[in-house]
Amino acid sequence: MEKLLDLLKFHARLSNEQLAVMLGTTEAAVANEIAKLEKEGVIKGYGAIIDEERLNKDLVTAYIEVKVSPKPDQGFDEIAATIMQHEGVESVYLMSGGYDLSVTITGTSLREIALFVSERLSTLDGVLSTATHFVLRRYKDKGVVFTTHCRDERSLVSP
C-alpha cells in the first residue's frame, strides 16, 4: 500500500496496468487497493501541479500565520472550519510554534488578499493576530522543480 501511495503521489496519471508492473502485482489488485483507499478517505483526490506563471495568470499566493484563542470544548476546529469555507483558501493547518493556524490563500491581487485578512479573517471571533507572507517566486512545490536554472543576473563588481 505504501509503495502504491508513493507512486500515486507523484505519478497519478499512471494506469493501473503500469502501476501493477511497477509494483509486481496484478492490475485487479491495484484497482481494488485504490478503490479501498478512496473509500476509506486515505486518497482524498488527484490533481495537477500547475505553473501559473507560464499561463500568464496574475495570481497572488499568501501564507497567513494566525494566532487564535480557541473556544472551550471546541479547540481550534471551529475557527479552522470557518476559515476554510472562504473562497480562495487552499489550505488550513494547525501548527506548533509561534502561531496556531497556517492559512494558504490565492487571489487575483495583493489588495484582494489584504481585504480578506482585514475584513474577513481578523474580524473572526477568537482571532488575536495575523501575519501575511506573499509568495514572490516558486522554485519547488510538492516535489516539482519550477526553475531549471537559477542564474544570478547581477553585475560583478570588483575593486
Structural class: alpha+beta
**What is the makeup of the main sheet?**
4 strands, antiparallel
CATH class of the largest domain: Alpha Beta
Biggest sheet: strands side by side, in what order?
2-3-1-4
The counted number of beta strands is 6
Quick recap of the structure?
The protein is of the alpha+beta class and 159 residues long. The chain has helices spanning 2-10, 16-23, 27-39, 77-84, 110-121, and strands spanning 60-68, 89-94, 101-107, 127-134, 140-141, 144-145. Helices cover 31% and strands 21% of the residues.
Description:
By secondary structure, this protein is α+β, with helices and mostly antiparallel strands. The chain has 2 domains: 2-39, Arc Repressor Mutant, subunit A (Orthogonal Bundle); 52-141, 2-Layer Sandwich (Alpha-Beta Plaits). It has 5 helices and 6 strands, in the order αααβαββαβββ. The strands form 2 sheets. It has a 4-stranded antiparallel β-sheet. Strands 5-6 form a two-stranded antiparallel sheet. The longest helix has 13 residues, at 27-39. It is flat, with a radius of gyration of 21 Å. The model has no long low-confidence stretch (mean pLDDT 89).
